[in-house]
Design goal:
176 residues, SH3 type barrels
């Protein structure tokens, strides 16, 4: 039922909030761009109706979907005045392959951890195999550190890319 519902939401371009089944029931709001049996891609939107990058996650992380509320309709109107839904083509379909493809196309990625959705690493994928990703990781704006980090791809629950935060962080790191 989830796949069919998301397909309808894609066709109708309905702004949707996704609640995740993690420990703190985190949520994102945006437009579905692509769905398959193992991947969901959304363009994120802020409460002010601004584009907020993209997120990719696995369907089993979804706890609830909400659409059609007054608040979402208002945000949708703001978004439609300022921006538009931007489709992204992904050639790969396997989780780790899509992550690598996105890293090559869009640069920095925020990698959200399966154990704690509030924690994430930021970096570029340097090397990979089916189990591991080697990152050129970037520290926060406060630390401005740069280091290498090896992470398990099956421990990543969600990624975000092309967000204002990541774009700003990338710009700051390029200046140093």
């Amino acid at each position: 039922m989830l796949n069919e519902t998301i397909q309808k939401l894609i066709i109708h371009k309905d702004l949707t909030t996704v609640v995740f089944n993690d420990s703190d029931s985190s949520e994102v709001t945006g437009y579905f761009i692509k769905e398959s049996d193992n991947l969901i891609l959304m363009q994120l939107v802020t409460d002010s109706g601004l584009s907020d990058g993209y997120t990719l996650f696995e369907p089993e992380l979804v706890q609830d979907l909400m659409w059609g509320t007054r608040a979402l309709s208002s945000i949708d109107r703001l978004f439609q005045q300022k921006s538009k839904v931007e489709a992204i083509y992904l050639g790969a379909d396997a989780w780790h392959e899509v992550i690598v493809e996105i890293s090559h196309m869009h640069g920095l990625i925020a990698f959200y951890n399966m154990e704690d959705e509030s924690c994430f690493d930021v970096g570029l994928v340097l090397m990979h195999d089916e189990e591991w990703l080697l990152l050129d990781a970037l520290g926060s704006v406060e630390t401005m550190s740069r280091f290498k980090k090896l992470i398990r791809s099956d421990n990543i629950c969600r990624i975000e890319f092309d967000t204002p935060y990541l774009n700003d962080l990338n710009e700051l790191h390029s200046e140093t």
